[in-house]
Each structure stands twice: as structure tokens, then as C-alpha cells.
Write a structure and sequence with these properties.
Length: 444
């Protein structure tokens, strides 16, 4: 009989017949092997099959619970010899029987309610999410492309009010919030910075709060669908803004695994590893970036930084000079290699060689406090104190909360006999050094 039934299933193949066959096989087995309980073989068969289906109604759960209770009491020697199902469960039994016959797949039923998980647990594969286009999301993207970020944010939030389970909505809002940080912090496009180097504490607090909010949106979206490689890159840059280079490294590594052609992701991965002092790994990332973009000035410049981190100064100097050569004819130059080459030459006690590069950097980026700080240091070592004073005064004007600048300027005043200013700068140096002043932030 079992062979006949299974042959019928194989032959006929439609789902109702498959279900009927399963019930018939189970009844036959239960009867043949004398599996005796307080319920009939038919009810036993339905109960066993119900375990393969995720209950979607209270009635079905009630039937399953009653079956299980009956079996448990019988095994424990409790209850009467036979136990009749309450009459009120007849309709529930009918519902269960129909679900068992016509449910799509007993072995693959899934609970569609998303689990509440972290971004780390949710990201398993790079499959893109396929969301139906929504008018408010289309509008938000349009606003974003036009640079109207507050309007874009408003449109996405309106979309999420009615679609809280929209992964695309959450991911888009996370990206918009990150873009707002870029705009508010006035990130320097010429050096592809991620932070505003001279941000005030209040600005930094606002920036960090928005970065965390952006991360929260990506985490919310990940409950419903895996983010893609681009999303993970933005997640990583949020962590960069928060100074968490370990997590930035982690998500950028995943991002480049999923999209190895993303030059920016390789670049930022190198920056994260550089800030972790993982210089050899940083070199590998920058080299991969250069394979994809052979004349990337920022990648070549940062390759020099990583080489210098390993003490390979001659190779670092060669990389800086190469990056400078690549932009000789460019109208908009990147000051990075000029600054980094000048800094390395100062470290090697070669201030006279450093000054020409630093002067060029100051012409390219006159509002970069670090350029003026390095020039002040170079002129001090060359005993050109008026020039050192001028550069350090410019640096303190641009970054008044940087204690190191006041500490450098004070002895320059003192050596020139400018006692009052020297004392004021020493006092300012002490006050900032003893407080939580804004430290110098490494340039990404």
C-alpha cells in the first residue's frame, strides 16, 4: 500500500495529492505498527503534519496544543483511556486539514516576520535588495541628487511612516544623514577628507550624533534585507567619523569583497588600516586602489604615509614626489603630498628642503592650519623667528583650540622678547593642555 501511494504521488505530482498521500501513509504506518494513543490515527497524522507547518492562526495553534497535551498525558499515564476532542475544535481541525493540503511547502515554510538583529548578524550575502519603487523614495533620491538634503530626509521619513519594514528606505535615510554630515562639516573635496580637522566640540558632538543615527538606520534596514557593498561602505565611513577604525576596517573589508572594483572603498580601507597602525595591510589596500586608478594622487600620497610608517622613508619620499608630479598640470591640486613630504623632511632634520614644498601647500590650501604649523616649525629650526611667528599666528587663528600651536608660539615670542604675548600663549597652552581640547585629527 505504501508503494502504491508513493507511486501515486510521484505520478500525479500536484500539491493536494501530495498532501493526501502524506496523510494516507501516516495513517497506514500508525495503524500497522499499533502506535496507540488517546486519539485516532487520522488525528495523529494531522498532528504530525502540523509540526511541519508554521501555524498562522490561533485556531491551528489550539488544535496542535490540544494534540500535544493529549499525547503527553497518555504517555505519563494520566487521563482516561480515550479522550474526545472538544466540539469547539471541529472547525479548527477543518482549518488545519485544509492548510496541510494546500500550504505551499511543508519543509520550507518560513515565518515572514523579520528577526530583530544587529547589522553584524544580518549581513550574510551581497544580494541586492529588490524593492518596488515608491514615489516618496523616488522623490527623495531626486532631492538628494540636487543637493536638497533636508527635503530628501523629509521624503524618506514620510515613506518610513507607512513602510517601517522598507530596507531601501532605511538604507537611503542612513546615506542621506551621512551626506548631511559632509555638508555641515564642510569636508574638503580637494583632499577627500572624512572629518573637518578644526571642528569645534559642539560641531563634533552634532556630527557624532548624526553618524550614530545614520548607523541606526542601516541597522534597522538590515533587519529586513542585507545591505549591499555601497551601504557597507557608508556604514564604515560612519565609523570613521566616530573614530572607530576597527569597525571601519571590518565593514570596508566586507565591502571590497563584494565589490572589488570600488576604488574609494579600497582607499578608505587603506586609511582605516593606517589609523590602526597596520601599515603593511594599508600598503596592500592602497596598491589595490592604484591598480584600479593608476594616477590616484590621494592613493599614492597615502601609500607614502604607510611606507613612512614602516620606516621606509626613501620609498615614501619617492611616492610623495610621484603624487606631486601627477598633478603638475592640474588646476585644482591636492595639498596632501606637499604637506606629507614637507613633514617627513622635517622629521629627518631637513627643514630647508621642506620649506619649498610647504610653501606650495600653503598656496593650495591657505586655510589648512597644519600647513602653517609645519612652516612655523621649519622656520623656527632655521632660526627665522619673524616668519615662524607669522605662520604660527595663522595656524592659531585657524585652529584656536589646538593646544600644541599655542605651546609652539609662546617660545617664539619669548625668544624675540615679546614677553606679554609669550606669557599669554604659555597660559593658553597650559589651559588647553589641561582641558579636553580638540586634538589634531589625522587626515584621511
Amino acid at each position: 500500500m505504501v508503494i502504491f501511494v508513493m507511486f501515486g504521488v510521484e505520478k500525479r505530482g500536484s500539491l493536494p495529492f501530495v498532501r493526501v498521500a502524506q496523510v494516507r501513509v501516516l495513517i497506514f504506518a500508525l495503524t500497522f505498527f499499533r502506535i496507540r494513543t488517546s486519539t485516532s490515527p487520522l488525528l495523529q497524522a494531522l498532528y504530525i503534519l502540523s509540526l511541519q507547518v508554521s501555524p498562522t492562526s490561533g485556531a491551528i495553534k489550539e488544535v496542535a496544543s490540544t494534540f500535544e497535551s493529549t499525547h503527553t498525558k497518555k504517555r505519563a499515564g494520566e487521563g482516561p483511556r480515550r479522550k474526545r476532542l472538544p466540539a469547539r475544535l471541529n472547525s479548527s481541525l477543518a482549518i488545519l486539514f485544509l492548510q496541510l493540503l494546500f500550504s505551499i511547502s511543508s519543509g520550507n515554510s518560513q515565518d515572514l516576520k523579520p528577526q530583530s538583529v544587529s547589522l553584524n548578524a544580518a549581513v550574510q550575502s551581497p544580494a541586492p535588495y529588490a524593492a518596488q519603487p515608491d514615489a516618496s523614495l523616488v522623490e527623495a533620491k531626486s532631492f538628494m541628487e540636487k543637493g536638497l538634503l533636508p527635503d530628501a530626509e523629509r521624503s524618506v521619513r514620510h515613506h518610513l511612516e507607512g513602510h517601517a519594514d522598507s530596507p531601501e528606505g532605511h538604507f537611503l535615510l542612513g546615506y542621506i544623514l551621512f551626506r548631511e554630515i559632509q555638508t555641515e562639516a564642510r569636508l574638503e573635496t580637494t583632499v577627500e577628507s572624512v572629518k573637518n580637522l578644526d571642528a569645534h566640540p559642539a560641531d563634533a558632538k552634532t556630527r557624532d550624533g548624526k553618524a550614530r543615527e545614520s548607523l541606526a538606520e542601516f541597522t534597522a534596514g538590515a533587519k529586513y534585507h542585507d545591505p549591499n557593498a555601497f551601504d557597507l561602505k557608508i556604514v564604515a565611513l560612519d565609523y570613521v567619523l566616530l573614530g572607530d577604525y576597527v569597525d571601519a576596517d571590518k565593514w570596508l573589508t566586507r565591502s571590497v569583497e563584494w565589490n572589488p572594483q570600488d576604488t574609494d572603498a579600497w582607499y578608505y580601507l587603506g586609511r582605516a588600516r593606517y589609523n590602526e597602525n597596520k601599515f603593511a595591510d594599508a600598503i596592500s589596500a592602497f596598491q589595490q586602489c592604484l591598480k584600479l586608478s593608476p594616477v590616484s594622487v590621494k592613493a599614492e600620497d597615502n601609500l607614502g604615509l604607510a611606507l613612512a610608517g614602516l620606516g621606509r622613508n626613501e620609498e615614501a619620499i619617492a611616492a610623495y614626489k610621484e603624487a606631486i608630479a601627477w598633478q603638475t598640470q592640474s588646476v585644482l591640486k591636492n595639498p596632501g603630498p606637499y604637506i606629507d613630504l614637507g613633514s617627513l623632511l622635517l622629521d629627518e632634520s631637513r627643514p630647508d628642503e621642506a620649506v619649498p614644498y610647504l610653501v606650495q601647500a600653503a598656496e593650495i590650501a591657505p586655510r589648512d592650519s597644519r600647513v602653517h604649523e609645519l612652516l612655523g616649525k621649519a622656520y623656527t629650526r632655521m632660526d627665522q623667528l619673524p616668519k615662524a611667528q607669522s605662520e604660527l599666528e595663522k595656524a592659531t587663528d585657524l585652529a584656536p583650540q589646538n593646544a600644541n600651536l599655542h605651546c609652539m608660539l609662546a617660545p617664539v615670542y619669548r625668544k624675540q622678547g615679546i614677553v606679554d604675548k609669550a606669557k599669554a600663549e604659555f597660559d593658553r597652552c597650559a589651559a588647553l593642555s589641561g582641558s579636553h581640547s580638540t586634538p589634531e585629527t589625522p587626515r584621511p
